[in-house]
């Protein structure tokens, strides 16, 4: 392998001009030139001609995925990497020569090894420059209202990442503390030449990236890769989209370009032992946590393997029912993948590639799943990225805010406290059952989530309080909480985000209304209530 021209000089090149935020990558050093003109056709495969499933059990399924990667390219250097997935955040654009610490992937939103465009990009850079590669994750003792339930799921997944990294000669480092302190310190102490990070559209992770950009040594480039979305967020749209109908075509028309197979992350050939790898002290990680420990783990196993198992079961057992039964909480028809998506333990793109193999068998279900997991999910990222008020009424369309204000003084009867809601003490046995499921299992069926949130609007003193309670309960108990999908789901239910105005009524104004009778028409409410045991409680 040859060193790139740009780094063989041995000099530290400074940036020629400051890139605009979100600027497309142009330098040879970091992105490696005209990749998109490469002859590889891996990114051109039309999704629907993917071969039929050729596995019958889970082991074969895992093997099948590995074979897919291998048949795509032998490694990421041989692959036509889409430069549009990448943007340079720092002024520095060139990797200095002879940096013993090599390249660091600062892992955050996408906590997996394979099928991760950010890690692939980092490895591509390290291979090109013949440098070592390290993965670093910064663990903070408290994150918004995440509880022990969420931390255990996240840490469980990271333990698997550590093992996989070790097998690939990629040291994994768990740094305890905020990234703004730990990443620049790590870079200086280990003479790191370049940092690659992933992308999350929410406030706090964006502040982390911003702070690290400022705190890194001036000569170290920081590059960001959208490893979560299929169509990179900044490519899908440059503005806040109004609704699914306005973003759908922008995304779907680009799937031919971006919905590709992944090359494998390979055993890294450079720099064994360059940065001394110590086994992670997971006990110390747990000891430093300052989160709410009263909400403990649920039955879902964390990590990539468990996520693959969930995907396998969905494809082989539930997918056929998805289209017709996805609004029925008594039927097991959904993927249940959202916790693994949220923690980045499996790639949505991988799931779409596998689900699409069933297109001939279950066309309507495959299309419906793609609509949810691609269009709706990427629309949620779009909303949170372009609307700084994604979790407050300030972020609503003017018609929605107006209508909620017009009905601000409408009588709420009953009007519940947070404690009554949290303890499932309402008069509605369906709502209480959904709340009990949320607390006990860390999840709630997608259809009931809408009903649950809308009832909170009906039963609380103001729309502000309704949004606050809904986000709080969702984020505290749901394993997939604190996700763009969650903020948008709450804002859709209470504030009509991505929805339209409906017939005006008390409290809701023109915001879409849902009621118990409507649920009864859709599914067997009694069966659901029996399963989770919600009672009818009189207001004290
Ligand atoms: C009040 C409320 C709160 C919500 N909170 C969350 C949350 O905290 N985290 C979360 O991931 N989703 C949330 N959602 C969106 C949706 O309900 C969940 O994504 C879905 O229920 C997850 O279950 P699943 O993986 O079985 O979904 P499936 O139906 O199998 O769908 C597959 C994937 O598509 C995506 N998806 C499905 N429905 C939506 C949707 N309406 N909007 C955006 N993406 C969607 C998700 O990534 C999901 O995992 C919320 C919705 C509402 C109304």
From TrEMBL:
Function: Involved in repair of UV radiation-induced DNA damage. Catalyzes the light-dependent monomerization (300-600 nm) of cyclobutyl pyrimidine dimers (in cis-syn configuration), which are formed between adjacent bases on the same DNA strand upon exposure to ultraviolet radiation.
Entries under InterPro entries matching the protein: Crypto/Photolyase_FAD-like_sf, Crypto/Photolyase_N_sf, DNA_photolyase_2, DNA_photolyase_2_CS, DNA_photolyase_N, Photolyase_Class-2, Rossmann-like_a/b/a_fold
The protein's name: Deoxyribodipyrimidine photo-lyase
TM spans (from-to): none
Essential cofactor(s): FAD
Family: Belongs to the DNA photolyase class-2 family.
Enzyme Commission number(s) from the entry: 4.1.99.3
Recorded catalytic activity of this chain's protein: cyclobutadipyrimidine (in DNA) = 2 pyrimidine residues (in DNA)
NCBIfam families noted in UniProt: phr2 (TIGR00591)
Span list, region Disordered: 1-44
GO molecular-function terms, A-Z: deoxyribodipyrimidine photo-lyase activity; DNA binding
Polar residues: compositionally biased ranges: 29-42
UniProt keyword list: DNA damage, DNA repair, DNA-binding, FAD, Flavoprotein, Lyase
């Amino acid at each position: 392998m040859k060193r790139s021209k740009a780094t063989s000089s041995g000099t530290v090149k400074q940036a020629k001009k400051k890139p605009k935020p979100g600027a497309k990558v142009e330098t040879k050093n970091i992105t490696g030139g005209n990749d998109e003109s490469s002859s590889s056709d891996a990114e051109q495969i039309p999704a629907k001609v993917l071969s039929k499933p050729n596995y019958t059990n889970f082991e074969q399924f895992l093997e099948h995925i590995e074979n897919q990667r291998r048949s795509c390219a032998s490694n990421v250097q041989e692959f036509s990497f889409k430069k549009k997935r990448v943007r340079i955040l720092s002024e520095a654009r060139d990797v200095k020569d002879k940096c013993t610490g090599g390249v660091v992937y600062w892992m955050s939103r996408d906590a997996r090894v394979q099928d991760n465009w950010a890690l692939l990009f980092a490895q591509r850079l390290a291979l090109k420059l013949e440098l070592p590669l390290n993965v670093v994750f910064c663990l903070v003792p408290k994150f918004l209202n995440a509880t022990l339930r969420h931390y255990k799921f996240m840490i469980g997944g990271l333990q698997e990442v550590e093992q996989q990294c070790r097998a690939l000669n990629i040291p994994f480092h768990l740094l305890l503390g905020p990234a703004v302190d730990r990443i620049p310190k790590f870079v200086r102490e280990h003479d790191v030449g370049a940092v690659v990070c992933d992308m999350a559209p929410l406030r706090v992770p964006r502040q982390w990236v911003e702070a690290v950009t400022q705190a890194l040594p001036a000569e170290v480039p920081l590059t960001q890769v959208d490893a979560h979305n299929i169509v990179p967020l900044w490519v899908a749209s440059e503005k806040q989209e109004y609704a699914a109908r306005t973003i759908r075509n922008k995304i779907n028309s680009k799937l031919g370009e971006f919905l590709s197979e992944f090359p494998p992350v390979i055993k890294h050939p450079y720099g064994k032992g360059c940065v001394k790898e110590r086994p992670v002290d997971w006990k110390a990680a747990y000891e430093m946590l300052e989160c709410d420990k009263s909400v403990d783990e649920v039955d879902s196993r964390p990590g990539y393997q468990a996520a693959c198992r969930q995907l396998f079961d969905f494809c082989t057992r539930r997918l056929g029912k998805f289209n017709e039964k996805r609004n029925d909480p008594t039927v097991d028809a959904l993927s249940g993948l959202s916790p693994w998506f949220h923690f980045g333990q499996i790639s949505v793109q991988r799931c779409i590639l596998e689900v699409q193999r069933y297109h001939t068998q279950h066309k309507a279900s495959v299309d419906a799943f793609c609509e949810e997991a691609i269009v709706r999910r990427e629309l949620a990222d779009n909303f949170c990225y372009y609307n700084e008020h994604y979790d407050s009424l300030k972020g609503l369309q003017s018609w929605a805010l107006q209508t909620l204000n017009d009905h601000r003084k409408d009588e709420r009867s009953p009007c519940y406290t947070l404690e009554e809601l949290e303890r499932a003490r309402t008069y509605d046995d369906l709502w209480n059952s959904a709340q009990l499921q949320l607390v006990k299992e860390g999840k709630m069926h997608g259809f009931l989530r809408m009903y649950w949130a809308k009832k909170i609007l009906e039963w609380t003193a103001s729309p502000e309080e309704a949004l606050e309670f809904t986000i709080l309960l969702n984020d505290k108990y749901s394993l997939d909480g604190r996700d763009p999908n969650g903020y948008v789901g709450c804002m859709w239910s209470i504030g009509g985000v991505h929805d339209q105005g409906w017939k005006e009524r008390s409290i809701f104004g023109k915001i879409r209304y849902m009621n118990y009778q409507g649920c009864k028409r859709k599914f067997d409410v009694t069966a659901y209530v029996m399963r989770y045991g919600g009672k009818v409680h009189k207001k004290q």
